[in-house]
């Protein structure tokens, strides 16, 4: 089975609206591995790893976000497997501190 790993940047009104918790819930429900975190520039960054269709579906969901968010742009690029090392030990998907 093939596996995709994408790093995603989401810009817009995506902080202070529950975006990270929403991403964590959606990714976990889809069986994805990875992490999500706020960035000081006001964006949200995430890494998703899993079946290519599930990763693509998650990126599509990020274009809308939770009801209180306003997503202006979503960009994604292929990421290396070592990006997953940022997760907390024992977690398949982590919410990380702001960088």
UniProtKB/TrEMBL annotation:
Catalytic class of the enzyme: hydrolase
UniProt keyword annotations, A-Z: Hydrolase
EC numbers for this chain: 3.6.1.7
GO molecular function: acylphosphatase activity
Every Acylphosphatase-like domain range: 5-97
One family name in Pfam for this protein: Acylphosphatase
The keyword Glycoprotein appears for this protein: no
Catalytic activity: an acyl phosphate + H2O = a carboxylate + phosphate + H(+)
Active-site residues annotated for this sequence: 20, 38
UniProt keyword Hydrolase present: yes
PANTHER family linked: ACYLPHOSPHATASE
NCBIfam families the UniProt entry points to: PRK14421.1
Entry's family note: Belongs to the acylphosphatase family.
Record-given protein name: acylphosphatase
Organism: Bradyrhizobium cajani
């Amino acid at each position: 089975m093939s596996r995709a790993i994408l790093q995603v940047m989401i810009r817009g009104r995506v902080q202070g609206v529950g975006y990270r918790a929403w991403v964590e819930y959606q990714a976990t429900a889809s069986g994805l591995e990875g992490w999500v975190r706020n960035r000081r520039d006001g964006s949200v960054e995430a890494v998703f790893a899993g079946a290519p269709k599930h990763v693509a579906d998650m990126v599509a969901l990020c274009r809308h976000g939770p009801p209180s968010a306003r997503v202006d742009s979503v960009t994604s690029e292929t990421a290396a497997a070592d990006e997953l090392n940022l997760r907390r030990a024992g977690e398949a998907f982590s919410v990380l501190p702001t960088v």
